[in-house]
Amino acid sequence: MNTIPLRTGSDGTNPEIGGDPICSISEVSKTYAGGFHALDGVSLEIRKGEILALLGPNGAGKTTLISIICGIVKSSGGSVTVGGYDVGRHFRQSRSLIGLVPQEINLEPFETVSNTVNFSRGLFGKPKDTDYIEKVLKRLSLWDKRKDQIVTLSGGMKRRVLIAKALSHEPRVLFLDEPTAGVDVELRKDMWEIVRALQADGVTIILTTHYIEEAEAIADRVGVIDKGKLLLVEDKSTLMQRMGTKQIRIELQSALESIPDALSQYELEIDKTGNALIYTYDPTGGRTGITSLFSDLKSAGLVLCDVQTYQSSLEEIFVDLIKAQT
Amino acid sequence: MNLHAIKAIYIFEMSRTFRTILQSLVSPVLSTSLYFVVFGAAIGSRFAEVEGVSYGTFIVPGLIMLTVLTQAVSNASFGIYFPRFIGTIQEILSAPISSLEIVVGYVGAAATKSFVIGLIILATAHLFVPLRIDHPVWMLGFLVLTCVSFALFGFIIGIWAKNFEQLQLVPLLVITPLVFLGGSFYSISMLPPVWQKVTLFNPVVYLISGFRWSFFGESDVGVGLSLAMVLLFLSICLAIIMWIFKTGYRIRN
Fold first, then answer.
1. What is d(CA A264, CA A162) in angstroms, rounded to the nearest whole number?
2. Poorest-pLDDT segment among A207-216, A300-309, B149-158
3. Averaged over A33-51, what is the pLDDT?
4. Does the beta-carbon distance from A70 to B88 stay under 8 Å?
5. Is B221 on the interface with A (CB under 8 A)?
6. Which among A313, B79, B147, B201 has most CB atoms closer than 10 A?
7. Domain membership flag for residue B252
8. Structural domains counted in chain A
9. Does the pLDDT of residue B23 top 80, yes or no?
10. Cβ neighbours of residue B113 closer than 8 Å, sequence gap 6 or more
11. Taking 90 as the threshold, does the pLDDT of residue A90 lie above it?
12. Do A257 and A110 sit in the same domain of this protein?
């Protein structure tokens, strides 16, 4: 992948992560004409320069939330500002800050890559800038395909065209709606690299996904949405620390039938084979008890063969959260 | 005013015409030529003069209107329906662009196409029959107003249509009969008295009458009335479009 930097924001600087929110969502709700409640009082602040992953099962309300911020869907209540501009009253200012990569591959099939990207730039009120568009296309490895009709491109290339269109007007906030749905592993990793490079340029990125590994791989913060409600938003590392537990698997030279009395004070389990002890502990607490456990293991006369540590993944945290809701 | 956006939509729409130049320009010219061969030369030669000109010449304004109306409606309806169909409308709805600018871009492109086709047909007609234009400024004015009004009408159909059948339905079931019965090929005075009254409910009568007046100085209804009716139709279409964007009808959930 090409890593030519794109332009940074209008102030020319890389905004610091954790500064003022670039996007504030306050008590947003949406009820569709059929009576379906897609969103129920969602409030969220998106920080400048971060990568925020919105996780949730299909139909959770992720796309509706993005569509409201981008102006495609009207909210039934609440307010949204982008860069301090209300998305309803000051739609011109707010929308010109936003780039949207939709979930569906919506492209005019018979247009060329270059024309369709230039069209997007114009649509967002920017004068023609061939140098900038060239940089975008080169970064997305689309430069060689610029004269090709969209219909001749592969699915992965079409997704890149969608990203190029979204970046064509130099947005400060980029929404990626399920950017890697139905994309092969190789391309998914490529996309992640593109997203990281954009963040380095100072672009704030919000992506929705139902692939937890995606959030785990690239997000700074994670929000979980289910049934139109935002269940939580937290720094990924805090979330994994708070919700995640750690375990140590201690392989023993000889099998055990029961836990020796000397070790009864520890959260220990004997594994099914009897050849290993599983120690569960809270990594966030100051004292994990590991040092004393190992010294007590030695005193109890147990001989260790191997030690492995294991941390619960975001996926397990997510599944636990969704289960707790239902 | 987001002029870059209007320009972007306009150029994008016009480039579709250049991509499909054959359907866009050649086919209307061909079908008009066939009308001239059949009605002008073959059948028309047996007709007496109408309003002081030969029948072949008499039908020129009506034929131009027939094609221009159909083209304006189909270009504009397709222009906005296609992005809805393939989903690219989402990008337009998420752009910092007002409803008016969207309409100006799409309707402007559709009106331009039909205007150019109108002029090409006029030139084609000139090859077949002798022509005179008494009021060229009025002629161009009527042509522009017609292109714009019916492109607006087409835009409404493009928003209303749920599928390609509906998109075809209105031009087929409404526009063609209205144009054929609107005096494209005859003068209203040729009709029985009752039908002369009935036909006054057809808005196209006023268009064709006014347009024909700009050529030959003769009309079925007064030119002022014709102009007023075109402007009325234009205003109704504009009002409907404003309502569409205000309510988000069929485009914004």
1. 59
2. A207-216
3. 92
4. no
5. no
6. B147
7. no
8. 2
9. no
10. B14, B17, B24, B71, B72, B75
11. yes
12. no
